[in-house]
Design a protein that fits this description.
The longest helix has 40 residues. The model has no long low-confidence stretch (mean pLDDT 90). Helix 1 runs antiparallel to helix 2, helix 2 runs antiparallel to helix 6 and helix 5 packs antiparallel against helix 6. By secondary structure, this protein is mainly α.
């Protein structure tokens, strides 16, 4: 995943350059770029999903991200609230109303999923505690079954969280005019690249 992500970030940097360079009035160029950006982010979710099928715990402890990047995470991905920070300021009253409605809906879903995630985390802690206690899940089959249940729960909440993130981005792009969507996606890419670089720099300072 580390090599995939390094390549993915390099592609994101190239994508950002294209988003920033496209003229505001070239709708014919906006749409292919928007599709390219959405496909780029979809490729990350797909890679993450495939990794979760093999080892979901790695997805929740992503070694390919810096500690600074992880500060912005919610359920193994970007915090939905952060996505709304990338929306351009020049919205019409109707666009603003729709974005705010989407924000409220997303916040409600996020609260529900955070509660579910808390219960899953309690299950993980309980499993680890039983492993440490004498007589706790001594039976190998019972231990494997309990671990499998936790892993399935984590995969489920991860899929729902990524689904929420995808829906938010898709709906925002739908609400915005094409030139606004280009700016929105450029803001998102620029923010992530800056966070990534800052995280790498912090790691270097600590190691030095």
């Amino acid at each position: 995943m580390e090599s995939f992500f390094e390549n993915w970030v390099a592609q994101e940097e190239d994508l950002l350059a294209s988003l920033l360079a496209v003229p505001r009035d070239r709708v014919d160029l906006h749409l292919p770029l928007i599709s390219r950006a959405l496909e780029h982010y979809h490729s990350y979710y797909l890679a993450k999903s495939r990794l979760a099928d093999r080892d979901v715990f790695l997805v929740f402890s992503p070694s390919w991200l810096t500690p600074f990047e992880r500060n912005f995470m919610w359920i193994a991905g970007v915090n939905p609230a952060l996505i709304f920070q990338f929306v351009p300021a020049d919205l019409s009253p109707e666009q603003r109303r729709e974005v705010e409605e989407l924000r409220r809906e997303a916040e409600a879903v996020e609260r529900e999923m955070t509660a579910v995630m808390a219960r899953v985390q309690e299950s993980v802690v309980s499993l680890l505690a039983l492993e440490m206690l004498h007589g706790g899940l001594r039976n190998g089959e019972a231990r494997a079954e309990a671990a499998a249940e936790v892993e399935d729960a984590l995969r489920g909440i991860l899929g729902e969280a990524d689904g929420l993130r995808v829906r938010i981005v898709a709906r925002i792009v739908e609400i915005l005019e094409s030139y606004q969507a280009v700016e929105f996606l450029a803001n998102a890419a620029n923010c992530h690249i800056r966070i990534r670089r800052w995280g790498i720099r912090q790691n270097g300072l600590r190691e030095g």
